[in-house]
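In the current project phase, our protein records have gained a structure token line. A sample record follows, to show the layout:
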Amino acid sequence: MLVNLVEILKLAEERKCAIGAFNTPNLECVNAVIAAAEKLNVPVILMHAQIHESASGLEQIGPVLVQAAKTAKVPVCAHLDHCEDLDYIKRGLALGFTGVMYDGSTLPFEENLENTKKVVSLVKGENCGVEAELGAMPPREGGENAPGPVYTEPDEAVLFCRETGIDALAPSFGTAHGIYKSKPVLDLERVRIIAEKTKLPLVMHGGSGVSPEDYRVGISNGLRKINYYSYMSKAGTKAVKELLEKQDVTYFHDLALAAEKAMEANAESAMRIFYGL
């Protein structure tokens, strides 16, 4: 069942949980995430990040995400992740995406604010919610750990949320995109303060590799959406390597199916934590 970002985050608030938001740059990822969500009977967010254009173009994978959401047995939001320009968002809206995340986190505060206001205005009247990022988390999907993030200031977050009219905020509190080389040190008290001051659902980017306990504390402090991809993808890669070590595989689809099943199991494990199962 296709729902928008506002609707699915409302479910998270009602259940005091976080919705798993999974980047799904190919069909195997889509199938894995939907299968895990339907098995657990939980809502979920399918995402396509602009940085994954090299893996799947928006016009190729977008209709797949939207159709998968429509036919799923659970509520599903089709969400654009880390959009950096209005044209990309317009293309996503035309395809039926029901959530967009504008990423102006590397821009000066005022420029990020003004651009985000334009995005909110753009989706007005559409079946779509808006997420934005304030502060900066290095690096983007597909990268390695980098020096520490620029933490989000709570008072700036209040001003940003009030002026833009966004539906969800991704603050920076110590996570990083990609594979962690060391255990992340998270400022989860900052999450609590920002959630309390803004009264908005908060989003964790760089969600892979965080400890179950940190997930739980973050959720209790106001996280309502957790972005997750790197470790799910890594599980798929591991499954393919193990299969190739065991036997001489002729058909690529056998490798794809092995990756899909491993990613489904990994996604299910993450969902169990996010939903408190």
Notes: The first strand starts at residue 19 and ends at 23. The radius of gyration is 18 Å.
